[in-house]
Prior knowledge:
The chain has 465 residues and is an all-alpha fold. Helices cover 69% and strands 0% of the residues. About 8% of the residues have low confidence. This is Glucose-6-phosphate exchanger SLC37A2. Belongs to the major facilitator superfamily. Organophosphate:Pi antiporter (OPA) (TC 2.A.1.4) family.
Amino acid sequence: VRRTFAYGISLLSSYVYRGFILLLTFLFYTAYHLSRKPISIVKSQLHRNCSFVIRPADLNITDNATWCDWVPFDQDNYQNLYGYLDNCFLVAYAIGMFFSGMFGERLPLRYYLAVGMLSSGLFTSLFGLGFYWNIHSLWYYCLVQALNGLVQTTGWPAVVACVGNWFGKGKRGFIMGVWNSHTSVGNILGSLIAGAFVSSAWGMSFIVPGIIIGAMGVLCFFFLVEKPEDVNCTPPQHHDPWLNYFFTDCMPAVIFLSYFVLQVASLTRNLFCHAVLQGVVEFSLCLLFAKLVSYTFLYWLPLYIANVAHFDPKAAGDMSTLFDVGGILGGILAGVISDYTGGRATTCCVMLIVAAPMVSMLLFCGALVNGPYALITTAVSADLGTHECLAGNSRALSTVTAIIDGTGSIGAAIGPLLAGLISPTGWNNVFYMLITADILACLLLSRLVFKEVRGWCGYTTRQRG
């Protein structure tokens, strides 16, 4: 019999397959986020207050105000330029995510992830090599960021599809809450690694994470198994009747966007109805605003700490990890609560409501914002993507995940851009923007929360055929 799975996995016992796959995909997406983090740490090094920096005696430069800055970020518009860099990555990521699910359905996940991680390692390293090659062109850094954004879309739909294939619905919220801490773990490791080099040679802040994610790509090629059936394991049970209350009674106008995405992905009519009727639109738009908040912190928090608290770049990066530590706890807490109550939407809504007045408290805000973010991008995506109305089309999980995370990535692109435009008027205005986004995320889930509460009270939802 010809083998169709990774050769390295044949060394493992059948008793540890699922645990190994969970660990492997955790490491993969940790590496993805680890390689995204350096830009936020390096920002405070590219533009500094040169009056506090000891000037080398042999340096013959007449401009005393910007001699220590990295051109082209040495001018007063440096915050706008940072916004351009962020958006080159995030806009490319948002656009690519809508099509990533389509490729994820048609290509072997092992090859898809391996190539994606190797490519991401290349482009992450190219950004850092700009330091050693003495490149001062904004277009170079923007191009590298955009290309990296595109190849990073290979990660999320593929790893969620793989985990969804291996794990059933029993305690999916808890399992994926723990598993989804890879986002925060990657951010923390990325901050610490980038911070270790940022003051001496910021190029290494990108090159080292680039090497790490490239190494994960090699590991993926030899060990990842897409489905239990590939190694003669019994697939998990995906379909539970409790998800019926996700069905809706109307088609909102904004479904046009989801319809377009689904058509591009060549999905079946059943999947289109599934996306319309089961809350994909609401969760997607909620994730848009949740990721707006999360990614604004991801890309701008170290710079904010450096500017307001006057920390050096390394100390600012270390302090910013508090947000991600809270994110680990929040993701697990959201998963446990939603498993116990059966209310994904209600859990997300309550946490976002509490998060709004706490945006300046890093640990609590990280938990309350990243909890719903983690729940939507993992357990909710897997619930919807493996529902019984898909008639066994488990590969559609990759596309449903891409739709939800792709919509969320629009918010991830808008948030840092708005921060770059608003921050020159005062950091308080940035926090007002984040509070507004939190409130909008809550409102978008109000209908699903109402349906969940009705279900707890013993009411049933009439489905229209």
